TrEMBL record, chain A:
Native source species: Marinomonas rhizomae
BP-aspect Gene Ontology terms: amino acid transport
Transmembrane segments: 20-43, 55-77, 83-105, 142-166, 186-204
Record-given protein name: Amino acid ABC transporter membrane protein 2 (PAAT family)
Listed InterPro entries: AA_ABC_transptr_permease_3TM, ArtM/GltK/GlnP/TcyL/YhdX-like, MetI-like, MetI-like_sf
Subcellular location(s) per record: Cell inner membrane; Cell membrane
Domain ABC transmembrane type-1: 17-205
Source species, domain of life: Bacteria
UniProt GO molecular function: transmembrane transporter activity
Automatic annotation (TrEMBL), chain B:
The entry's keywords: Amino-acid transport, ATP-binding, Cell membrane, Membrane, Nucleotide-binding, Transport
Entry protein name: Amino acid ABC transporter ATP-binding protein (PAAT family)
Keyword Lipid metabolism: no
Organism: Marinomonas rhizomae
Topology versus the membrane: Peripheral membrane protein
Major subcellular location class: membrane
Family: Belongs to the ABC transporter superfamily.
Amino acid sequence: MIEFSNYDILRNLMFATQWTILLSLAAFIGGTTVALTLTAMRLTRNPAMQRIVRVYVELFQGTPLLMQMFLCFFGLSMLGYEISAWGAAILSLTLFTSAFLVEIWRGCIDTLPKGQWEASRCLGLSFLQTLRHIILPQAIRVATAPTVGFSVQVIKGTALASVIGFVELTKVGTMLNNATFEPFKIFTLVALIYFMLCYPLSLYSKHLEKKFNVSR
Amino acid sequence: MSLVNLHQVHKYYGDNHVLKGIDLDIKAGEVVSIIGKSGSGKSTLLRCINGLEQYQEGGITVDGKEVTTEDIQVRRLALSVGMIFQNFNLFPHMTVGENVMLAPTIVLKKSKAEAETTARAMLEKVGLADKFDSFPEKLSGGQQQRVAIARALAMSPKVLLCDEITSALDPELVGEVLKVLEQLAKEGITLVLVTHEMNFARDVGSRVVFMHQGKVWEQGDSKTLLSNPQTDELKQFIGAVL
Protein backbone atom coordinates (compact mmCIF):
# COMPACT_ATOMS: atom_id res chain seq x y z
CA MET A 1 0.00 0.00 0.00
CA ILE A 2 1.22 3.48 -0.87
CA GLU A 3 1.56 5.95 1.95
CA PHE A 4 -0.07 9.37 1.43
CA SER A 5 1.46 12.26 3.24
CA ASN A 6 -0.65 15.31 4.00
CA TYR A 7 1.26 17.02 1.27
CA ASP A 8 0.25 14.32 -1.22
CA ILE A 9 -3.37 14.59 -0.21
CA LEU A 10 -3.41 18.34 -0.58
CA ARG A 11 -1.56 18.23 -3.88
CA ASN A 12 -4.03 15.74 -5.32
CA LEU A 13 -7.01 17.72 -4.10
CA MET A 14 -5.63 20.94 -5.53
CA PHE A 15 -5.07 19.25 -8.84
CA ALA A 16 -8.66 17.97 -8.83
CA THR A 17 -9.93 21.43 -7.93
CA GLN A 18 -8.78 22.64 -11.31
CA TRP A 19 -11.21 20.24 -12.93
CA THR A 20 -14.01 21.36 -10.66
CA ILE A 21 -13.33 24.96 -11.63
CA LEU A 22 -13.09 24.08 -15.29
CA LEU A 23 -16.32 22.10 -15.21
CA SER A 24 -18.08 24.92 -13.35
CA LEU A 25 -16.90 27.48 -15.87
CA ALA A 26 -17.91 25.32 -18.82
CA ALA A 27 -21.34 24.66 -17.30
CA PHE A 28 -21.81 28.31 -16.45
CA ILE A 29 -20.84 29.52 -19.91
CA GLY A 30 -22.92 26.81 -21.57
CA GLY A 31 -25.84 27.51 -19.27
CA THR A 32 -25.66 31.26 -19.85
CA THR A 33 -25.63 30.80 -23.61
CA VAL A 34 -28.61 28.45 -23.61
CA ALA A 35 -30.46 30.62 -21.09
CA LEU A 36 -29.96 33.69 -23.30
CA THR A 37 -31.50 31.85 -26.23
CA LEU A 38 -34.39 30.64 -24.08
CA THR A 39 -34.94 34.13 -22.68
CA ALA A 40 -35.13 35.54 -26.19
CA MET A 41 -37.62 32.81 -27.11
CA ARG A 42 -39.71 33.63 -24.11
CA LEU A 43 -39.73 37.35 -24.86
CA THR A 44 -41.13 36.88 -28.33
CA ARG A 45 -44.85 36.88 -27.83
CA ASN A 46 -45.09 33.59 -29.72
CA PRO A 47 -47.16 31.13 -27.60
CA ALA A 48 -45.49 28.02 -29.06
CA MET A 49 -42.01 29.35 -28.20
CA GLN A 50 -43.14 30.27 -24.72
CA ARG A 51 -44.57 26.80 -24.18
CA ILE A 52 -41.31 25.17 -25.24
CA VAL A 53 -39.42 27.26 -22.69
CA ARG A 54 -41.96 26.52 -19.98
CA VAL A 55 -41.75 22.76 -20.53
CA TYR A 56 -37.96 22.94 -20.63
CA VAL A 57 -37.81 24.79 -17.33
CA GLU A 58 -40.33 22.48 -15.63
CA LEU A 59 -38.47 19.42 -16.86
CA PHE A 60 -35.00 20.38 -15.74
CA GLN A 61 -36.03 22.11 -12.53
CA GLY A 62 -38.40 19.30 -11.62
CA THR A 63 -35.96 16.38 -11.83
CA PRO A 64 -32.82 15.76 -9.80
CA LEU A 65 -29.57 16.86 -11.40
CA LEU A 66 -28.15 13.41 -10.69
CA MET A 67 -30.85 11.73 -12.79
CA GLN A 68 -30.19 14.17 -15.60
CA MET A 69 -26.53 13.29 -15.42
CA PHE A 70 -27.26 9.54 -15.46
CA LEU A 71 -29.54 9.98 -18.44
CA CYS A 72 -26.96 12.06 -20.31
CA PHE A 73 -24.20 9.56 -19.57
CA PHE A 74 -25.84 6.13 -19.66
CA GLY A 75 -28.92 7.05 -21.65
CA LEU A 76 -27.04 8.60 -24.54
CA SER A 77 -24.57 5.73 -24.78
CA MET A 78 -27.46 3.25 -24.84
CA LEU A 79 -28.90 5.20 -27.74
CA GLY A 80 -25.60 4.70 -29.50
CA TYR A 81 -24.02 8.08 -28.85
CA GLU A 82 -20.66 7.65 -27.18
CA ILE A 83 -20.24 10.38 -24.63
CA SER A 84 -17.41 10.86 -22.17
CA ALA A 85 -18.03 11.53 -18.50
CA TRP A 86 -16.68 15.06 -19.13
CA GLY A 87 -19.12 15.59 -22.00
CA ALA A 88 -22.08 14.21 -20.09
CA ALA A 89 -21.24 16.33 -17.05
CA ILE A 90 -21.01 19.52 -19.10
CA LEU A 91 -24.18 18.72 -21.00
CA SER A 92 -26.31 17.97 -17.95
CA LEU A 93 -24.94 20.89 -15.94
CA THR A 94 -25.61 23.20 -18.88
CA LEU A 95 -29.22 22.04 -19.06
CA PHE A 96 -29.61 22.41 -15.30
CA THR A 97 -27.96 25.83 -15.13
CA SER A 98 -29.90 27.26 -18.05
CA ALA A 99 -33.24 26.10 -16.63
CA PHE A 100 -32.62 28.07 -13.46
CA LEU A 101 -31.00 31.11 -15.06
CA VAL A 102 -33.87 31.57 -17.49
CA GLU A 103 -36.26 31.76 -14.54
CA ILE A 104 -34.02 34.14 -12.61
CA TRP A 105 -33.70 36.40 -15.61
CA ARG A 106 -37.38 36.32 -16.34
CA GLY A 107 -37.97 37.65 -12.85
CA CYS A 108 -35.48 40.44 -13.49
CA ILE A 109 -37.04 41.42 -16.79
CA ASP A 110 -40.52 41.31 -15.26
CA THR A 111 -39.53 43.78 -12.56
CA LEU A 112 -39.05 46.43 -15.25
CA PRO A 113 -42.23 48.49 -15.58
CA LYS A 114 -44.43 47.68 -18.54
CA GLY A 115 -44.26 51.37 -19.38
CA GLN A 116 -40.69 50.93 -20.58
CA TRP A 117 -41.92 48.63 -23.34
CA GLU A 118 -44.85 50.88 -24.15
CA ALA A 119 -42.78 54.05 -24.30
CA SER A 120 -40.32 52.32 -26.61
CA ARG A 121 -43.11 51.10 -28.80
CA CYS A 122 -44.66 54.56 -29.01
CA LEU A 123 -41.31 55.98 -30.06
CA GLY A 124 -41.17 53.52 -32.94
CA LEU A 125 -38.48 51.18 -31.61
CA SER A 126 -38.64 47.60 -32.88
CA PHE A 127 -38.75 44.64 -30.51
CA LEU A 128 -35.03 44.01 -30.87
CA GLN A 129 -34.15 47.68 -30.54
CA THR A 130 -36.21 47.85 -27.36
CA LEU A 131 -34.44 44.81 -25.97
CA ARG A 132 -31.02 46.08 -26.84
CA HIS A 133 -31.33 49.73 -25.82
CA ILE A 134 -33.96 49.71 -23.10
CA ILE A 135 -34.64 46.33 -21.52
CA LEU A 136 -31.29 44.54 -21.44
CA PRO A 137 -29.19 47.41 -20.03
CA GLN A 138 -31.62 47.68 -17.12
CA ALA A 139 -32.23 43.96 -16.69
CA ILE A 140 -28.52 43.16 -16.63
CA ARG A 141 -28.02 45.49 -13.70
CA VAL A 142 -30.78 43.75 -11.78
CA ALA A 143 -29.73 40.25 -12.84
CA THR A 144 -26.02 40.33 -12.05
CA ALA A 145 -26.30 39.73 -8.31
CA PRO A 146 -28.67 36.73 -8.43
CA THR A 147 -26.75 35.27 -11.37
CA VAL A 148 -23.46 35.38 -9.49
CA GLY A 149 -25.29 33.98 -6.50
CA PHE A 150 -26.56 31.08 -8.56
CA SER A 151 -23.05 30.23 -9.80
CA VAL A 152 -22.49 28.85 -6.28
CA GLN A 153 -25.16 26.25 -7.01
CA VAL A 154 -23.37 25.32 -10.21
CA ILE A 155 -20.06 24.76 -8.41
CA LYS A 156 -21.71 22.55 -5.82
CA GLY A 157 -23.59 20.76 -8.59
CA THR A 158 -20.36 19.68 -10.23
CA ALA A 159 -19.76 17.35 -7.27
CA LEU A 160 -22.38 15.02 -8.72
CA ALA A 161 -20.22 14.47 -11.78
CA SER A 162 -18.07 12.27 -9.54
CA VAL A 163 -20.83 9.66 -9.64
CA ILE A 164 -20.51 9.16 -13.40
CA GLY A 165 -16.77 8.83 -13.01
CA PHE A 166 -15.58 12.30 -13.87
CA VAL A 167 -12.46 12.98 -11.86
CA GLU A 168 -12.98 16.25 -10.05
CA LEU A 169 -12.67 17.35 -6.45
CA THR A 170 -15.27 15.05 -4.91
CA LYS A 171 -14.14 12.04 -6.92
CA VAL A 172 -10.51 12.53 -5.93
CA GLY A 173 -11.64 12.95 -2.33
CA THR A 174 -13.42 9.60 -2.51
CA MET A 175 -10.41 7.95 -4.09
CA LEU A 176 -8.05 9.35 -1.45
CA ASN A 177 -10.39 8.17 1.26
CA ASN A 178 -10.37 4.66 -0.19
CA ALA A 179 -6.60 4.67 -0.05
CA THR A 180 -6.07 6.32 3.32
CA PHE A 181 -9.22 5.49 5.34
CA GLU A 182 -9.20 8.98 6.79
CA PRO A 183 -12.66 10.17 5.79
CA PHE A 184 -12.89 12.94 8.35
CA LYS A 185 -9.69 14.60 7.29
CA ILE A 186 -10.19 14.10 3.58
CA PHE A 187 -13.79 15.23 3.35
CA THR A 188 -13.23 18.17 5.65
CA LEU A 189 -10.53 19.31 3.28
CA VAL A 190 -12.79 18.74 0.28
CA ALA A 191 -15.63 20.71 1.88
CA LEU A 192 -13.22 23.47 2.81
CA ILE A 193 -12.05 23.80 -0.78
CA TYR A 194 -15.64 24.02 -2.01
CA PHE A 195 -16.26 26.65 0.60
CA MET A 196 -13.26 28.66 -0.52
CA LEU A 197 -14.56 28.57 -4.07
CA CYS A 198 -18.14 29.48 -3.18
CA TYR A 199 -17.80 31.95 -0.34
CA PRO A 200 -16.11 34.73 -2.36
CA LEU A 201 -18.85 34.41 -4.95
CA SER A 202 -21.55 34.72 -2.31
CA LEU A 203 -19.81 37.75 -0.89
CA TYR A 204 -19.47 39.30 -4.31
CA SER A 205 -23.14 38.69 -5.03
CA LYS A 206 -24.13 40.38 -1.78
CA HIS A 207 -21.85 43.28 -2.60
CA LEU A 208 -23.45 43.67 -6.03
CA GLU A 209 -26.88 43.56 -4.50
CA LYS A 210 -26.02 46.32 -2.09
CA LYS A 211 -24.45 48.41 -4.81
CA PHE A 212 -27.53 48.05 -6.94
CA ASN A 213 -29.91 48.97 -4.14
CA VAL A 214 -27.98 52.10 -3.30
CA SER A 215 -27.93 53.43 -6.83
CA ARG A 216 -31.67 52.95 -7.23
CA MET B 1 -59.36 67.00 -43.47
CA SER B 2 -59.41 64.81 -40.37
CA LEU B 3 -56.15 63.78 -38.79
CA VAL B 4 -57.54 61.14 -36.45
CA ASN B 5 -60.73 59.33 -37.27
CA LEU B 6 -62.55 56.70 -35.25
CA HIS B 7 -65.51 54.93 -36.73
CA GLN B 8 -67.75 52.71 -34.61
CA VAL B 9 -64.87 51.42 -32.52
CA HIS B 10 -65.69 48.57 -30.14
CA LYS B 11 -63.27 47.19 -27.61
CA TYR B 12 -63.72 44.27 -25.25
CA TYR B 13 -61.59 43.00 -22.40
CA GLY B 14 -62.93 39.48 -22.36
CA ASP B 15 -66.63 39.92 -21.56
CA ASN B 16 -66.17 43.49 -20.51
CA HIS B 17 -67.42 45.82 -23.24
CA VAL B 18 -65.18 48.87 -22.72
CA LEU B 19 -65.74 50.96 -25.83
CA LYS B 20 -69.21 50.78 -27.31
CA GLY B 21 -69.09 52.21 -30.76
CA ILE B 22 -66.95 55.31 -30.62
CA ASP B 23 -67.17 57.85 -33.45
CA LEU B 24 -64.70 60.67 -33.25
CA ASP B 25 -63.11 62.96 -35.76
CA ILE B 26 -60.15 65.14 -34.91
CA LYS B 27 -58.79 67.76 -37.27
CA ALA B 28 -55.25 69.04 -37.45
CA GLY B 29 -54.65 71.81 -34.92
CA GLU B 30 -57.44 70.84 -32.59
CA VAL B 31 -56.90 70.49 -28.86
CA VAL B 32 -59.32 67.83 -27.73
CA SER B 33 -59.83 67.05 -24.06
CA ILE B 34 -61.39 63.72 -23.21
CA ILE B 35 -63.04 63.82 -19.81
CA GLY B 36 -65.15 61.40 -17.82
CA LYS B 37 -65.20 59.21 -14.73
CA SER B 38 -62.53 56.56 -14.29
CA GLY B 39 -63.62 53.39 -16.02
CA SER B 40 -65.46 55.28 -18.74
CA GLY B 41 -62.92 54.14 -21.33
CA LYS B 42 -60.95 57.38 -21.83
CA SER B 43 -57.49 55.91 -21.50
CA THR B 44 -58.42 52.82 -23.47
CA LEU B 45 -59.61 55.04 -26.28
CA LEU B 46 -56.30 56.87 -26.34
CA ARG B 47 -54.36 53.62 -26.27
CA CYS B 48 -56.35 52.32 -29.22
CA ILE B 49 -55.39 55.36 -31.25
CA ASN B 50 -51.70 54.56 -31.03
CA GLY B 51 -51.98 50.81 -31.33
CA LEU B 52 -51.14 49.93 -27.73
CA GLU B 53 -54.53 48.27 -27.38
CA GLN B 54 -56.33 46.15 -29.89
CA TYR B 55 -59.91 46.97 -30.79
CA GLN B 56 -62.35 44.37 -32.05
CA GLU B 57 -64.72 46.23 -34.35
CA GLY B 58 -64.77 49.43 -36.32
CA GLY B 59 -61.87 51.38 -37.72
CA ILE B 60 -59.29 53.95 -36.66
CA THR B 61 -57.18 55.98 -39.06
CA VAL B 62 -54.44 58.42 -38.31
CA ASP B 63 -53.39 60.70 -41.14
CA GLY B 64 -55.33 58.46 -43.51
CA LYS B 65 -53.57 55.25 -42.47
CA GLU B 66 -55.30 52.47 -40.62
CA VAL B 67 -54.25 51.67 -37.05
CA THR B 68 -53.62 48.09 -36.00
CA THR B 69 -51.56 46.55 -33.21
CA GLU B 70 -49.23 44.81 -35.64
CA ASP B 71 -45.66 45.70 -34.83
CA ILE B 72 -44.75 47.10 -38.20
CA GLN B 73 -47.90 49.23 -38.30
CA VAL B 74 -47.39 50.56 -34.81
CA ARG B 75 -43.89 51.60 -35.71
CA ARG B 76 -45.05 53.48 -38.76
CA LEU B 77 -47.74 55.01 -36.60
CA ALA B 78 -45.14 56.13 -34.08
CA LEU B 79 -43.82 58.51 -36.70
CA SER B 80 -47.04 60.50 -36.64
CA VAL B 81 -48.34 59.89 -33.10
CA GLY B 82 -46.49 60.90 -29.96
CA MET B 83 -47.54 59.63 -26.57
CA ILE B 84 -47.03 61.04 -23.08
CA PHE B 85 -47.82 58.78 -20.13
CA GLN B 86 -49.05 59.40 -16.63
CA ASN B 87 -45.88 57.85 -15.21
CA PHE B 88 -43.46 59.58 -17.61
CA ASN B 89 -41.81 56.28 -18.59
CA LEU B 90 -38.44 57.88 -19.11
CA PHE B 91 -35.57 55.46 -19.58
CA PRO B 92 -33.82 55.59 -16.19
CA HIS B 93 -30.45 54.29 -17.40
CA MET B 94 -30.02 57.14 -19.88
CA THR B 95 -29.43 60.84 -19.40
CA VAL B 96 -32.12 63.32 -20.32
CA GLY B 97 -30.31 64.07 -23.56
CA GLU B 98 -29.98 60.38 -24.45
CA ASN B 99 -33.64 59.85 -23.72
CA VAL B 100 -34.58 62.50 -26.24
CA MET B 101 -31.97 61.50 -28.82
CA LEU B 102 -32.60 57.74 -28.79
CA ALA B 103 -35.56 57.41 -31.15
CA PRO B 104 -34.38 60.03 -33.67
CA THR B 105 -31.03 58.23 -34.01
CA ILE B 106 -32.16 54.61 -34.14
CA VAL B 107 -35.62 54.98 -35.65
CA LEU B 108 -35.25 58.01 -37.91
CA LYS B 109 -31.54 57.22 -38.50
CA LYS B 110 -30.50 60.79 -37.88
CA SER B 111 -26.85 61.49 -37.27
CA LYS B 112 -25.80 61.99 -33.68
CA ALA B 113 -25.04 65.65 -34.23
CA GLU B 114 -28.37 66.28 -35.87
CA ALA B 115 -30.24 64.41 -33.14
CA GLU B 116 -28.41 66.37 -30.50
CA THR B 117 -29.35 69.68 -32.09
CA THR B 118 -33.01 68.62 -32.16
CA ALA B 119 -32.84 67.30 -28.60
CA ARG B 120 -31.34 70.53 -27.29
CA ALA B 121 -33.95 72.57 -29.13
CA MET B 122 -36.79 70.44 -27.72
CA LEU B 123 -35.42 70.62 -24.18
CA GLU B 124 -35.12 74.37 -24.60
CA LYS B 125 -38.75 74.46 -25.62
CA VAL B 126 -39.85 72.71 -22.41
CA GLY B 127 -37.49 74.87 -20.36
CA LEU B 128 -34.96 72.21 -19.46
CA ALA B 129 -31.98 73.04 -21.66
CA ASP B 130 -29.67 72.87 -18.64
CA LYS B 131 -30.68 69.30 -17.75
CA PHE B 132 -29.26 67.67 -20.88
CA ASP B 133 -26.71 65.58 -18.96
CA SER B 134 -28.79 64.85 -15.86
CA PHE B 135 -30.34 61.49 -15.12
CA PRO B 136 -34.14 61.36 -14.84
CA GLU B 137 -34.08 60.28 -11.18
CA LYS B 138 -32.44 63.60 -10.29
CA LEU B 139 -35.39 65.56 -11.68
CA SER B 140 -38.72 66.45 -10.12
CA GLY B 141 -41.88 64.84 -11.46
CA GLY B 142 -42.82 67.94 -13.38
CA GLN B 143 -39.37 68.12 -14.96
CA GLN B 144 -39.49 64.42 -15.85
CA GLN B 145 -42.83 64.89 -17.54
CA ARG B 146 -41.46 67.83 -19.52
CA VAL B 147 -38.55 65.66 -20.65
CA ALA B 148 -41.10 63.07 -21.78
CA ILE B 149 -42.80 65.79 -23.81
CA ALA B 150 -39.49 66.82 -25.36
CA ARG B 151 -38.77 63.17 -26.16
CA ALA B 152 -42.07 62.82 -27.99
CA LEU B 153 -41.63 66.16 -29.79
CA ALA B 154 -38.21 65.13 -31.08
CA MET B 155 -39.98 62.69 -33.39
CA SER B 156 -42.00 65.62 -34.78
CA PRO B 157 -45.37 63.90 -34.39
CA LYS B 158 -48.49 65.14 -36.12
CA VAL B 159 -50.57 64.51 -33.03
CA LEU B 160 -49.61 64.25 -29.39
CA LEU B 161 -51.62 61.97 -27.12
CA CYS B 162 -51.50 62.76 -23.39
CA ASP B 163 -52.76 60.16 -20.95
CA GLU B 164 -53.52 61.91 -17.65
CA ILE B 165 -50.09 63.40 -17.74
CA THR B 166 -50.50 65.57 -14.64
CA SER B 167 -52.23 62.98 -12.45
CA ALA B 168 -49.03 61.59 -10.92
CA LEU B 169 -47.65 65.03 -10.12
CA ASP B 170 -47.66 66.97 -6.89
CA PRO B 171 -50.16 69.82 -7.20
CA GLU B 172 -47.49 72.53 -7.31
CA LEU B 173 -45.83 70.85 -10.30
CA VAL B 174 -48.94 70.57 -12.45
CA GLY B 175 -48.73 74.18 -13.65
CA GLU B 176 -45.31 73.90 -15.30
CA VAL B 177 -46.43 70.93 -17.39
CA LEU B 178 -49.70 72.53 -18.42
CA LYS B 179 -47.83 75.68 -19.41
CA VAL B 180 -45.74 73.66 -21.85
CA LEU B 181 -48.87 72.09 -23.28
CA GLU B 182 -50.48 75.50 -23.66
CA GLN B 183 -47.43 76.73 -25.54
CA LEU B 184 -47.63 73.72 -27.86
CA ALA B 185 -51.31 74.31 -28.45
CA LYS B 186 -50.54 77.91 -29.44
CA GLU B 187 -47.98 76.64 -31.93
CA GLY B 188 -50.75 74.65 -33.55
CA ILE B 189 -49.84 71.09 -32.63
CA THR B 190 -52.75 68.69 -32.47
CA LEU B 191 -53.34 67.50 -28.92
CA VAL B 192 -55.60 64.81 -27.59
CA LEU B 193 -55.62 64.72 -23.81
CA VAL B 194 -57.26 62.52 -21.29
CA THR B 195 -57.40 64.90 -18.38
CA HIS B 196 -58.96 65.92 -15.10
CA GLU B 197 -57.82 69.50 -15.48
CA MET B 198 -61.14 71.16 -16.25
CA ASN B 199 -59.72 74.67 -16.29
CA PHE B 200 -57.15 73.64 -18.83
CA ALA B 201 -59.79 71.89 -20.92
CA ARG B 202 -61.92 75.02 -20.90
CA ASP B 203 -59.24 77.66 -21.42
CA VAL B 204 -56.82 75.96 -23.78
CA GLY B 205 -58.82 73.15 -25.34
CA SER B 206 -60.85 73.70 -28.45
CA ARG B 207 -63.17 70.76 -27.88
CA VAL B 208 -64.28 68.62 -24.98
CA VAL B 209 -65.39 65.02 -25.36
CA PHE B 210 -67.28 63.60 -22.40
CA MET B 211 -67.16 59.85 -22.15
CA HIS B 212 -69.60 57.82 -20.11
CA GLN B 213 -70.04 54.05 -19.97
CA GLY B 214 -67.85 53.44 -22.99
CA LYS B 215 -69.59 55.93 -25.22
CA VAL B 216 -69.04 59.49 -26.37
CA TRP B 217 -71.89 60.86 -24.30
CA GLU B 218 -71.60 64.49 -25.23
CA GLN B 219 -69.09 66.66 -27.05
CA GLY B 220 -68.69 70.17 -28.29
CA ASP B 221 -66.82 73.44 -28.09
CA SER B 222 -65.04 73.45 -24.76
CA LYS B 223 -66.34 76.70 -23.32
CA THR B 224 -69.92 76.09 -24.37
CA LEU B 225 -70.02 72.50 -23.29
CA LEU B 226 -68.53 73.03 -19.85
CA SER B 227 -70.67 76.05 -19.06
CA ASN B 228 -73.82 74.62 -20.55
CA PRO B 229 -73.86 70.81 -20.37
CA GLN B 230 -76.89 69.15 -21.95
CA THR B 231 -76.99 65.71 -20.36
CA ASP B 232 -77.56 64.94 -16.69
CA GLU B 233 -74.45 62.77 -16.60
CA LEU B 234 -72.17 65.60 -17.69
CA LYS B 235 -73.88 68.03 -15.31
CA GLN B 236 -73.25 65.58 -12.50
CA PHE B 237 -69.66 65.03 -13.56
CA ILE B 238 -68.91 68.74 -13.76
CA GLY B 239 -70.60 69.24 -10.43
CA ALA B 240 -68.43 66.56 -8.90
CA VAL B 241 -65.07 67.76 -10.19
CA LEU B 242 -65.41 71.51 -9.94
